[in-house]
Amino acid sequence: MFRVMVCPNILKDKLDKVKVSEEELLVSFDVVSLFTNIPIPLAINIIMSKWSTIKQSTNIPKNKFLNILNFCLKDNNYFACNEKFYIQTFGMPMGNPLSPTIADIIMDDLLNATMIELKEIYKIDIQFIVKYVDDIFAIVKRKDVDIILKTLNKYHRKLQFTIETEANFRIPFLDVMIHRRNDSLILDWYSKPTSSGRLINYLSSQPSKYKINTAKNLINKILKISHQQFHDTNIKKIFNILRSNNYPEHIIHSLVKQITTQINDKRNNPTITTTNNETKRYYSVTYVPRLSEKIDRKEYTNNQNTILAYRSNHTLSSVFTKTKTPIEPHQQNNVVYEITCEGSENEKCNRIYIGTTKRPLAVRLSEHEADIKKNKSNTALSQHISASGHTADLTKTKIIDKEKRERTRFTLESLRILQKRDKTMNKKEDTDDIATAYLLCL
Question: What does pTM read for this prediction?
Answer without folding.
Answer: 0.74
